[in-house]
Design brief:
2 copies of one chain form a homodimer. Chain A is an alpha+beta fold. Chain A is built from 5 helices and 12 strands.
Chain lengths: ~190, ~190
């Protein structure tokens, strides 16, 4: 990377594939783009929920305009994404890690896990989308597989090797960046198992 | 109502049924209580989405604390409530009106209506919960019935009488206050039609 005087960064390419993370896209942006693409194509209706905040103080500079002057982020009690696809209620959480070796479990709050189990209990489909930034690899880990890991391990993180073996790789594409519904088509709906 | 010096209000009851709206509960509070009740009983997993805001300025008074100092409310592009019940993705909007004669349609944004149609296209169930505050009456109006109204009318509001005839009354109860899943059980799942 070279820092030019105008502050913009550019990548000197020397025939090396530009890793995805160096383009500055994060998983949330990629998923928002992907979900918008699904919506535009009428393939699914899946949205990121707004970030929950507690509003403490609101000003009204004019009659129709409210300006929030003091507010705080809340810990989410559910997952970030949900919607409907092929008649199934979809519910998932997406997280990225810079670790080379494992996905830290502290990223998933206990009430989020409880929420995901509840969704499946009522007939929805719940999963995690995990990105290892260093490898530019994104995986879909079904709740049932994640729960199997938790039942058999006391670890505070999921080893990268375990993810590679038990989650489904979501290949990167341009449109959409994270085509996770293709993975759901070929695994959940076709009943394939790993 | 009598205003006592300490600022608290109380209702003088003279054998008259205390109307619900006089207790100060609004539809959103009632629905949050109802959804929590469903969650506690493991009957359904339905949540209100956080209100979407655009954050402009954030202060960090300490390393782990973020204080939002400037933010604005956004117009929601989806509905307020969604989740899963009996294997079906549930998606609805809830609104109350003080009007005695009609429910004003300006309360439902065009992109919310589009969102509700999209949810049904993908196999979910979408509806409105409407409360006429003056009568303390709450109704569940299925999207298909609402769409039928829109196709046959150019009105800017739905007459109260039409709602009474075409939506399903949700009787008030204490626990939960708005038992809309009972209505869904006896109409959607049992295939009854009005």
């Amino acid at each position: 990377m070279v820092n030019y005087p105008n502050g913009k960064k550019t990548l000197i390419k020397q025939g090396i594939k530009e890793p995805h993370f160096q383009r500055g896209a994060n998983l949330e942006d990629d998923l928002n783009q992907t979900n918008q693409y699904y919506l535009d194509l009428n393939r699914a209706n899946i949205h990121k929920k707004p970030t929950p905040i507690t509003v403490v103080k609101v000003d009204y500079p004019s009659r129709n305009k409210a300006c929030i002057r003091e507010a705080y982020y809340k810990i989410p009690s559910t997952t970030d994404y949900n919607g409907v696809y092929r008649g199934i209620a979809i519910d998932f959480e997406a997280k990225e890690t810079k670790s080379l070796t494992a996905f830290p479990l502290k990223n998933i709050h206990p009430h989020q896990l409880q929420h995901m189990r509840s969704v499946e209990h009522h007939g929805g489909l719940s999963f995690l989308i995990l990105r290892f930034v260093a490898y530019d690899e994104t995986y879909l880990l079904y709740l049932k597989d994640f729960d199997r890991f938790l039942q058999n391990n006391d670890r505070k993180s999921i080893p990268y090797a375990w993810v590679k073996d038990n989650a489904y790789s979501i290949p990167f594409s341009l449109t959409p960046p994270v085509n996770y519904l293709n993975v759901i088509d070929t695994t959940f709906f076709k009943g394939a198992s790993k």
